[in-house]
Specification:
The protein has 16 helices and 35 strands. By secondary structure, it is of the alpha+beta class. The relative contact order is 0.11.
Length: about 700
């Protein structure tokens, strides 16, 4: 069998195909925003037709997409209604009464996906312990659903109070909807996110059903395209948690795909770091639209269960729609190759977060773009070769780009070259500031971890961002331009489950805890067996969300294997204190602990890849292929810079900056103070020298 990883980004769609002999084929093509599945066909069809793989073979395709994020941001989902417990229809709009900008009197709050006139009170009530306080009014639900059907409602989210303890009313509501309006899609909060906190649970449930039709139709359309071009085999989708799931599971829980593509990049960074002896590092993925940064600790990307989408105010926490899903913990900012530069009302140069995307793209693409972008600046600075972009498949317009930068520079009284360097510096500072905040919030010292830079623009900007953060080294992998696809192919089948059951740990009903853990393990086994795994191939990771009694936030702690009992309490408490101290630098008060949530991750084993990367041995070991003028501030301007061919670099080779390393999908810039070497896995490792 062969395996294919395809990641659709805002500007480019990346592909990595690995044959059963380990030989790899890499491709990068412009994303087609009107129909993203077309870009998948454009990338994969040539490989199937040119004999790189035998079309009669079965393949495995793993896909990463930004479709869900885009649909929520652009509000391009289904017409949706909310059914909730009587008296709670406004909980999703009241939120947490949190002001993310305390002194802003004109604060914009994120608008719910469902307006108030489509949110309905349903007579029913569950107590906090799961007992029924008021029976579900089935006649009311039946009449209401009929009216919603007649008004053209396409989706319904059901979120009743305390349904995570007793889902009977939600499940009965779903049965009634199926009887009265089977064409309406339904999401139940007890299935999407069975945990406490009404606002987040409702918001997550609505996000799931809001995009369900769009995602299901897209995945079906993609499957049809794969069938048309002769792909035969299995089709999986990357989840935000770093696992992969079947098309059917992804269609049922599309909210789990929010960070699909970025998660793959973090998995790739963790895998590469482990292989090259760097268990702790900073993953830096810069594409055409956004930049993503993630902390890799002890060989694993940090994870969280809180995420926000569609932030309305400068990417400030609290200004977006909350979703409670397992997600790789990263910060994402609007800084990519396509980020647009402009002069603001104060006469200052600004960059992003708006992007030119794939259409029209940067000015240098020659597709009608008129606003200069980060890629345009990099071209004028000499970092990119106008004749070798995408390996020469795409000719860049250098003269048109210079003219666009000159126009932008007129009100600033700056030359095209000065504007280009200003754009380059601003976007680097923006990314470094985001990384500094992300690391600081997690108690991490950036000076102790190297940066793993990938994505089409990551290696171009990685050196300067690492320099600003004073990181010890920069690592740029082979195939950096399609780095996320390596993560797609190294991720296991996996799915996460959660149950809320509050208790003080010293009064815990251990039988209940074990029953909840067993239920989630059973559900995970069913999901993964449907995906093709046997029981023997499935493993389980169990955690609990604990806190000191009375606190408002929890810490996730690993649980011992086997049946839990009171004898495990000291071990669990010690693990909590160790984790708490690593996060906050001290232990908490001498008070009892309480548990909020129980979690299980069911997963298979990561696939093994005997990867043989495409190399070029025809140059007799001479990796230097020429030189060109490029801008380096250490030399006070443009300097003749050595250009190295990525495909002829051999393990053990060394060279010093300033230097440029070119491959078809990306370019690595080494500053004047950098000392580069090629390791055994063909990573270029750049030690940052005295050029800081």
């Amino acid at each position: 069998m062969y395996r294919v990883g395809i990641d659709i980004g805002g500007t480019f769609t990346d592909m990595l195909l690995v044959g059963d002999d380990g030989n790899a084929v890499i491709a990068k093509t412009l994303t087609t925003p009107g129909d993203p599945s077309l870009a998948v066909e454009n990338a994969l069809r040539p490989v199937l037709e040119n004999g790189s793989v035998d079309a009669r073979q079965r393949g495995t395709l793993i896909h990463g997409t930004t479709l869900v994020t885009n649909a929520l941001i652009e509000r391009k989902g289904a017409l949706t209604a909310l059914l909730t417990t009587a008296g709670f229809r406004d909980a999703v709009e009241i939120g947490r009464e949190h002001r993310y900008e305390l002194y802003d009197l004109n604060l914009d709050l994120p608008k719910p996906l469902v307006p108030r006139h489509l949110r309905f009170d349903v007579p029913e009530r569950m107590a906090a312990d799961g007992s029924i306080l008021q029976a579900l009014d089935e006649a009311f639900v039946r009449k209401l659903v009929g009216e919603l059907r007649d008004k053209g409602i396409k989706a319904i989210g059901v979120c009743y109070l305390n349904s995570f303890r007793n889902p009977a009313h939600e499940k009965r509501t779903a049965e009634i909807i199926a009887e009265v309006a089977p064409q309406i899609r339904v999401s139940l909060s007890c299935e999407v996110v069975a945990e406490i906190r009404e606002f987040q649970r409702t918001s997550t449930t609505l996000a799931n059903v809001y995009v369900q039709e769009r995602v299901s139709d897209y995945l079906a359309q993609l499957q049809a395209r794969l069938d048309k071009i002769g792909f035969r085999g299995s089709f999986f989708v990357m989840l935000s948690s770093g696992g992969i799931a079947t098309r059917e599971t992804a269609s049922r829980f599309p909210v789990r795909l929010l960070e699909s593509g970025p998660a793959a990049g973090a998995i790739a960074a963790a895998e590469a770091g482990m292989g090259s002896g760097h268990r702790d590092l900073l993953s830096f993925d810069m594409g055409g639209t956004t930049a993503k940064l993630c902390v890799i600790e002890d060989g694993q990307p940090l994870k969280t269960h809180e995420f926000e989408v569609d932030r309305v105010y400068r990417f400030r926490k609290g200004s977006g729609l909350p979703v409670r899903i397992p997600v790789i913990d990263m910060i994402e900012i609007g800084a990519g190759g396509g980020s647009i530069a402009r002069v603001d009302s104060l006469g200052l140069l600004k960059v992003g977060p708006d992007s030119s995307g794939a259409d029209p793209g940067p000015v240098c693409y020659g597709q009608g773009g008129t606003q200069p972008t980060v890629t345009d600046a990099d071209l004028v600075l000499g970092y990119l070769d106008a004749n070798y972009f995408l390996g020469g498949k795409m000719q860049l317009d250098l003269e048109g780009t210079k003219k666009a930068l000159e126009r932008l520079g007129k009100p600033l009284k700056m030359t095209a070259q000065q504007v280009a360097w200003g754009i380059h510096q601003i976007v680097n500072e923006n990314m470094a500031n985001a990384a500094r905040a992300h690391l600081g919030e997690r108690g991490k010292d950036p000076r102790r971890m190297p940066m793993y830079a990938f994505g089409g623009a990551g290696p171009v900007h990685g050196y300067r961002v690492a320099e600003i953060l004073r990181l010890p080294a920069l690592i740029s992998p082979f195939g950096a331009g399609v780095g996320s696809t390596f993560g797609l192919l190294s991720a296991p089948l996996a799915f996460d489950f959660v149950r809320s059951a509050y208790s003080r740990m010293d009064r815990l009903d251990w039988n209940l805890a074990n029953r909840l853990l067993d239920e989630m393990a059973h559900e995970g086994r069913k999901v993964l067996q449907t995906s093709g795994l046997s029981s023997a191939e499935i493993r389980y990771q169990r955690t609990a969300d604990l806190r000191y009694i009375g606190q408002g936030h929890e810490v996730s702690v690993a649980l011992p294997d086997g049946v839990l009992g009171v004898g495990d309490l000291p071990r669990i408490a010690a693990e909590f204190e160790r984790t708490y101290e690593s996060l906050y630098g001290r232990k908490g008060p001498d008070v009892p602990l309480e548990v909020i949530n129980w979690r299980v991750v069911a997963s298979g084993s990561p696939p093994e890849m005997n990867l043989k990367l495409p190399r070029d041995s025809t140059h007799g070991g001479d990796a230097r292929k020429g030189s060109r003028l490029a801008f380096f501030p250490e030399t006070n301007g443009y300097v003749e810079t050595s250009i190295y061919d990525r495909y002829t670099l051999e393990p053990g080779m060394r060279f010093n900056g300033p230097a440029i390393v070119e491959e078809r999908e990306s370019t690595l810039i080494v500053g004047a103070g950098g000392q580069a070497r090629v390791d055994e896995r063909l990573n270029v490792v750049v030690e940052l020298g005295d050029g800081k």
